[in-house]
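Supplementary Methods, section 5.1.

A reviewer requested that the exact input to the structure prediction be made available. We therefore reproduce it here, unchanged from the version used in the analyses.
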Amino acid sequence: MSRVLLLRGALVVLMIALMIWTLQRKLIYFPDRAAPPLAAGASAVTLRTDDGLRLGAWLVRPPLGTAERPLSVLVAHGNGGNRAGRMPLASALAALGVTVLLLDYRGYGGNPGRPSEDGLHRDALAGRAFLDTLGMPVVYYGESLGAGVVTSLAVRRPPAGLLLRSPFVSLAAAGRVHYPWLPVGALLRDRYPVADQISQVRVPTVVVYGTADSVVPAGQSAEVARRAGLLVGEVVVPGADHNDRTLLDGPELMGAAKSLMEAVA
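The structure derived from this sequence is encoded token-by-token as follows.
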């Protein structure tokens, strides 16, 4: 009888593991697939990926009367929503005098395709290629999952500077926090090894995170900062949770961005 129970238990675990393997990207990526209406202050642009996709994105230039910096910023957002939700961030960055590209991934914001680690890296590479046509140095800004996207891009295409907001050590490390009963490391198809890659990035790097982050533990962001190849700033926002407005365009974040831009411009 005990062997039968063990066999049944093993079959249940196997079925759960198979289901997670098949559906795991639905647990990682939460896109708002609708194409957002063009936001005031943004211009629509089209990015072309090396695997043949045409992606909608927004370019946000400094407001009239703003002292412009010869610098552009590639913004890679987190795993939820689409570019419309990051427009306050883009506007705040543009007010510092820089040109901002709000990237939207495949499967997000009316774009074709399905998100994956490889796909998002291709999307970010297309964003970098577009900004290169503007003839300005590029800073990468990565939010949460986007930190994994731009850190990988920074290894292959180094930017002038790198700002990571609420980065995790790796997707497996973040997953184990939320699914401690699963063999997350063995099951994951997408890895995003941020802490391992950040040590290879030798450009000025700033890491910003909140102490009350319920999605990415603050300790993981601190570990990314510790491993950074050229850390120039670590900004800890007391009491801030992962999706709090202060970590979108708040004064601590904008202060960190301004300091980084002054260092690289």
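The mean pLDDT is 92. These observations are discussed further in the main text.
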